[in-house]
Amino acid sequence: MTFVKHTLRWAWPTLLGPARSVRSRLDCAIHCLQSFPSSCHGYLYNESTKICKPSSGLSPYSSPEPSDGDFYFNDSQSSYPDFRHHTLLNETQSVSAYAGYFTKPLTYTEAQATCQSMHSHLFVAKSVIKYFLFLNITTKEYSDWIGLDDLANEGRFVWADDGQEIDVYMKSYLFVSPQPDGQRNENCVYKTSIHDTVKALTFNDANCSLTFSYVCEVDLSLI
């Protein structure tokens, strides 16, 4: 297994066990692999103090201290512990997604950047069953960003994965008229909560600087 120095910004190491003093960075890597053979995906190592902190991967929920040192990472799909497979079945269809739900509120741009740092994108719901899968992953209590916006072209709402415009049927299904209304620079779409003034569990456009929970989704073709 190869560990490469990794610049941290949107997601940070999830630590495994207590810190340990070692003789070198190589010893830190060996300690991580031997102590946590199935979950070691990286480690923090401080060259000055020789302190080693094994990691199971990266998560937006973590927040290391600058004194933890540099992070060395084996970047793979299993290196992001918040992600898991989700599946929904009905009488005629099934749909799956490999996704992570994050309840730490961020702006739309921050949420998308966080997803991208984990080789994913904001969740997209191009079909009715995929929309219900999104509802299963999230909670009624929170408003959640979804990967749909008209930032590039006002009034043309496109999905975050490939830039495809939302089709007429899904737009009418997901939004309650007169939404999306584009008022007050409302360019980013979120799922309403049971506490929202707009009908709960529908889509609404809002100012992208608001902060909501979000779901990151990995393209299944990459798994």
From TrEMBL:
PROSITE patterns: C_TYPE_LECTIN_2. InterPro entries: C-type_lectin-like (IPR001304), C-type_lectin-like/link_sf (IPR016186), Ca-Dep_Lectins_ImmuneDev (IPR050801), CTDL_fold (IPR016187). Residues 101-217 form the C-type lectin domain. Pfam families: Lectin_C. This is Uncharacterized protein LOC106078340 isoform X2. It comes from Biomphalaria glabrata (Bloodfluke planorb). The gene is LOC106078340.
